[in-house]
């Protein structure tokens, strides 16, 4: 009689391509990245970082109601997006706006959503950062955690049945793996042989819960095998490693019609959101260390620079241009009209139902009678 | 158990007057593509049609592969393959995901075409989990529709409408009627419109509103009341949300009285919503308070099921009371209140 012990004595290794200094590690195979691709990846990482910094400040000034940054996880965002095709369907959690940025969602569109104005695709109904774009194959973000995982399996199964050469890709954090939906999604994906990639951002913190309190296993990567899923652990702050892992996972998912799990190790440098102050539960030194020494953006920059593909001049131009674009986008979004009142009632169903018609009529009557009870900036 | 069967026998014989029969066996009845079917077979026929007419239609859920616990999915996997008809566990995403997908994405995405079939209601021996009627929960979630059929023919036509509707729908199937209710069902592909109630019995003294299996009980109450000279109008709501207020309103304006009956607990049940809406619209035309004959506010009790249920006689008593203002011992709490008022006068 022999029980399997709770943990293996050997931890699953972490796939890395660049060392902490941005040098290519020896004896590591990886998917080649061209100069053009590398420069674009770096530029988008900087754009994401700048967008986070500025929108965060805009929220602090009270101009938008909420914000949530992806700081520290720029490589997971951008490198995974770069390794995918635009036909692949993304089911995000909420810390992956970089994927949408990569796909062509403009800074202006991000700003419109955060200000909830009439140009927001979501018609001002959801909190800031709940982006979504059908055109970009990017499902609209919803606040509940992990619901996107079984949904991604369904989307992947649909791609499989339609004979498409594409996969579904879903993201979540370490905290989401403790939800029941994680189990449902993983198990369903394996049994149905669905072409789906699960990218789990293990960033150390689920709001205030550290991974030590989250699970007793060797992280998340070991869970894949239990479900019958190919899995890899990757350094999420190494853009080349993320790119290679996702690129290869995509090939496996589509050619072999099976799911793949990627555990990307990283660190949530920002607070969970603007509703959180993480210095209450973690040391500032730890945050600073990951922000400066372990920055995925800086590491990738060193590699790009070393190749002679990027100069300090490029850097200054990029940062100043992105900043200008963002300031302009924010001004435009702030001045844009709010969504019209009718948007309160539409889209509950495909057509306005009779109860909603009745409620809209009554509300309009009341607005006529008591206009001061209602905001004046919503077009009637 | 035997009590239940006896009771069933009674209301099934009543049902047969409406064109249903007691037999649970499929009969090759007639010409013109109409067959005598029970409710589960009618649902099975609708699912065949849905899969046949839409190559991107799928059926999945617990045990659907082998035909389902209630046999509603019999033969589907053999006919359409296990890639389109397969077993899955349940993972609840109705309230936060399916219902809000269209609204929160600004109509960029939606969950149209998702129909969640679920049995509901008493069956004589189900206890807490297998007999409850949670329809009111779902009526309180904007973005989903709630539909409940009363008979095999209705089940087939409504289910096909739900499957083809561009909105997510929870379709409650009256468990008690799966085998019991038998009706002539057209074999062709037909759809019964959603959000349209049906007056299934005309009357002028009081309006009765219900849905699903409860309609059989209410029809018996109507027949009994008729013997006492009371003319009841009976309405099948069919779609609970968004519901057909106009049909109920028109009827109540005619009769001046309304009784709603459902198996679900009375407090916060959908009857309360109907009552409030009709009071708003018909207050000056009402000649009596709106009556509710519903389940009790307890979990569905196994041994006490006959006490819990909104029975025919509970309905009949209310009908009689509201028409004739007769003192009824069962409802003496209400009468005591009336007496107090009298004293004050």
TrEMBL record, chain A:
What CDD domains does the record tag this protein with?
A: TPP_E1_PDC_ADC_BCADC
Positions of the Dehydrogenase E1 component domain? 44-340
Query: Which residue positions does the secretion signal occupy?
Result: none
Output the Gene Ontology cellular-component terms. mitochondrial matrix
Q: Where does the protein end up?
A: Mitochondrion matrix
Keywords, in A-Z order: Metal-binding, Mitochondrion, Oxidoreductase, Potassium, Transit peptide
- Give the Gene Ontology MF terms in alphabetical order: branched-chain 2-oxo acid dehydrogenase activity; metal ion binding
Tell me if Protein transport is a UniProt keyword of this record. Answer: no
Q: What class of enzyme is it?
A: oxidoreductase
InterPro entries annotated for this entry? Alpha-ketoacid_DH_E1_comp, DH_E1, THDP-binding
The answer to whether keyword Transcription applies is no
- Identify which cofactors the protein needs according to its UniProt entry: thiamine diphosphate
The record lists the catalysed reaction(s) as:
N(6)-[(R)-lipoyl]-L-lysyl-[protein] + 3-methyl-2-oxobutanoate + H(+) = N(6)-[(R)-S(8)-2-methylpropanoyldihydrolipoyl]-L-lysyl-[protein] + CO2
Q: Provide one Gene Ontology biological process annotation.
A: branched-chain amino acid catabolic process
Q: What is its main location?
A: mitochondrion
PANTHER family the record matches: 2-OXOISOVALERATE DEHYDROGENASE SUBUNIT ALPHA, MITOCHONDRIAL
Q: Subunit structure of this entry? A: Heterotetramer of alpha and beta chains.
Family of this protein:
Belongs to the BCKDHA family.
What this protein is called in its record is: 3-methyl-2-oxobutanoate dehydrogenase (2-methylpropanoyl-transferring)
Annotated source species:
Trifolium subterraneum
UniProtKB/TrEMBL annotation, chain B:
The answer to whether keyword Transmembrane applies is no
Q: What is its EC number?
A: 1.2.4.4
- What is a biological process (GO) this protein takes part in? response to nutrient
Q: Which UniProt keywords apply?
A: Oxidoreductase
KW Oxidoreductase (keyword) present: yes
User: Can you provide one Gene Ontology molecular function annotated for this UniProt record?
Assistant: branched-chain 2-oxo acid dehydrogenase activity
Q: Which residues form the Transketolase-like pyrimidine-binding domain?
A: 37-180
Q: Which InterPro entries does the record match to this protein?
A: THDP-binding (IPR029061), Transketo_C/PFOR_II (IPR009014), Transketolase-like_Pyr-bd (IPR005475), Transketolase_C (IPR033248)
Pfam families from the UniProt entry? Transket_pyr, Transketolase_C
Q: Which reaction does it catalyse?
A: N(6)-[(R)-lipoyl]-L-lysyl-[protein] + 3-methyl-2-oxobutanoate + H(+) = N(6)-[(R)-S(8)-2-methylpropanoyldihydrolipoyl]-L-lysyl-[protein] + CO2
Show the PANTHER family listed in the entry: 2-OXOISOVALERATE DEHYDROGENASE SUBUNIT BETA, MITOCHONDRIAL, 2-OXOISOVALERATE DEHYDROGENASE SUBUNIT BETA-RELATED
Q: What is this protein called?
A: 3-methyl-2-oxobutanoate dehydrogenase (2-methylpropanoyl-transferring)
